[in-house]
Amino acid sequence: MKTFPCLALAAALVLASAPALAEVGNLTNTGYGPTKADAEAKAKKNLEEACTSRNGKIVQGSFKVTFDKPLSNGQHYVDATMQCDIP
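User: That's the sequence. What structure does it adopt?
Assistant: Structure tokens below.
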């Protein structure tokens, strides 16, 4: 009878540790567009797709533009990051 409480405790610990195995990843991606706002929107869309393709959840408010540059052809280029909670 002593083994049952030990097994129950072990099972509870394993189930409790599963959320601790989740990881917050920092994703990076780029975007191009005719305006800076369009380039940022494209980069954000790319990052959201990358997060959901990994079955993750987007960390709200974590989108950040790390680099932006107007190009000689009238387009804008941005690098951006976003945090994704990956199970």
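Residues 22-86 form a domain with the Dodecin subunit-like fold (CATH 3.30.1660).
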